[in-house]
Amino acid sequence: MQLLKDRIRKDGKIKSGDVLKVDSFLNHQMDIKLFVEIGKEFKRRFADYEVNKILTIEASGIGIACIVAQYFNVPVVFAKKSKTKNIAGDVYTTPVESFTHGRTYDIMVSKEFLGAGDKVLLIDDFLANGKALEGLAAIVKDSGAKLVGAGIVIEKGFQPGGDRLRAEGIRVESLAIVESMDETTGTICFRGDQ
Question: Which one Pfam family would you cite for this protein (predicted)?
Answer without folding.
Answer: Pribosyltran
